Amino acid sequence: MKNKREERGRRIFNGGLRAQRMAKIFAIAAVLAAVLFLPVAALGYEDVAVRLVIDGGEVEDLTAPPIIVNDRTLVPVREVFERVGGVVGWHEEHRQVSLFYGDDVLVMTIDETDVNLNGYVVEMQTPPIIHNERTMVPLRFPAEMFGFYVNWDDEERAAVVSSPGNGNGVENNGGNGGLIFLGYYDDSANDSAMFLLSHEHEPENEPESDGKFAEDELPPPGVTAANPQTPANSALARDVSTIPIQTIAHEPTTLIALHSPRETGAAAFVAFSSSPISEVQYFLLPDNRLVVDIHNATSAFSGDFDVTGLGVPVGGVRAAQFSQIPAVARIVFDVIGAAEYSISLSADRTQLTISFARNRISAVSAGSDAFSDVLHIQGDVQPSITVSTEGFPHFITLNIENADMAAPGGIFAPGVFASHFDTGQNADGSAFVRIFVREAWPSFSISQGANSAEFMMHHAISGLRYDSVNRELRISRHLAAFDIQNATRINDYLRFNYTFVLPATAEILGRGEMSVPDGFVNSVSLARVGENVHLTFNTARVLSFTVFAETDYYVIRAHLPREVSPFIVVIDPGHGGPQPGASHNGIVEKDFALTVSQMVMQLLDADPFITAFATRHADTYVSLLGRAEFANNIGAGLFVSLHANAASRNRVVNPDVQGIETWYTIGELEYAANNRTNSRSIAQIFQRNLIIATHANDRGLRNGELVVLRETEMPSVLLELGFLTSPDEAARLASPIYQAMLAQAIYQSIVEAFALA
After folding, report:
1. What is the pLDDT of residue 123?
2. CA distance 412 to 416
3. Model pTM score
């Protein structure tokens, strides 16, 4: 059953890999509560030699050999887990040993069977102990929590451990790296427990410092144990935050979006929340991962974020719901080198900003050969470059986002296209390189290195010329002896490709790719595909294209969809990929929604007055926010999400519930109550037409805070087209005739909705 509360932000888990991981963890915990690991009858400590094998190799040099306690194999935690890539630690006051593996935290207390796993209490059969001045922990439990495979060889009396991915067929549920320790700290100032980096205490070799705050060294106001001062290390990032983030109790909140420097226009990531944030903790791990935890918060987004070309010292960004109880949303940044960062909250506590130092451009140099000019730009990290041709035909400007220019200008010698360049700083925090062009205006391309970029100016593909100012591609009609205006077009907008299929004679225009990064079109390419030539625009966003003829040229012009069509609708087939939705009576919701959406798209594509886009064309995953952002970026005037319903309580299906219902959400400021085109008035149109067309049970309108409706900036509806849990209604929903009736009613409703505009 599709749970509406899930779309309102009340989720049990974050879904995907984390849901699978947590399900496996608790399944293992349940098994361990009932099944003994080793087939030894005696209880208590058994002084019998036990062998340990890790990934096929026997471990023979342990200072404390494995022991058997209560029929369980216990091993020295530091020696064993450091062998698989981790650092293990100890907190004396709480007598706790803690492991951090990827996004999972496991805290075990000496002589106690209850352990804390990501905020959940789980019971072990045998507790960790101190034995011969060594911390000994049960082997199987923590190992399998992190995706390792553990077995017992009774004949050899050996515990056999296989790392994730070592041919044991067990999925790696561990995370993104080795085992990293986070100690535990009880901050009496705010009566909450927090993590900090520490070291294991070993009685016979006690370190001078265990890394925790001593009683007479409590952190100053605003400095939490989750954010200790990082030891001096030139390879690690440095916290330069100036204003401590205070903890202030608020109602639970939802993180609704994470914007990168691409959206913020600064060297910063910003997490937006639906209401004030209560608490933020952050810490830097020894491998330069910056971990930011937002407490009392549920994350509406998850997964990896694209950080290519941002011009900030970050190699990766991941987000997830770290724990549900307590609610903690986590964002992890893979920081590059000794970068400076700062973290702050807005005055209303709804925007959390993670800022990084701007990219320092240390060198800019020019070179030429007989065919091209090349400008090499060197930075601390990969420069993020946008090209402006507003100086046509005199100069080209390379704007380098989030950058400080520390290099002078220079000359091209001898220079095929360019004579010289100068450098400077823009008021918005970006740097620039201005390249002065001779008589011939070049085509150009950009190639990126780890911390550099090359801007190459070269001859255009024969007969093609792109004008970035007007977003126009000009094709010589003297070379193009065919009608481009009537060419077949392939609009693969979900992959940001728009292709004109031309006859083989179009090869006279050449082959290759012309880079034109103007913020709209990334490149134009010509390639032979079978018996045709494909002229393809790779775009930076969804665009529409028109073609017209001049005396000497065919002109292909790129437009924002709103510039060519006043009536734009986005059709959203619900679910997809690993999220099947409801599944009953032989029907899977994601497949049903896709089938009906394709029928609707066929009707809309045949209508010359309406431009339609779909959020997916196949069984693929699209996040809830991604669907809304897709419609917002296009500038759609209407958003229609298609679903099927299910009725059950406590997993007991109710086969008697049937009917169609239409959901809507009206934001407080988005649409005035007297506006005819608000979401409620649109919902009434859809509900009326669907009931008339199908004679289904009318379940009316439903107003709810669904993500895809709340986050869209246009009138939006979500259609529940019937209950899969009803055998009778499921049979109708499976009928192509009934599906066609639904599609026709949806199309008619879209037409009527636009007529109100």
Report:
1. 74
2. 8
3. 0.47
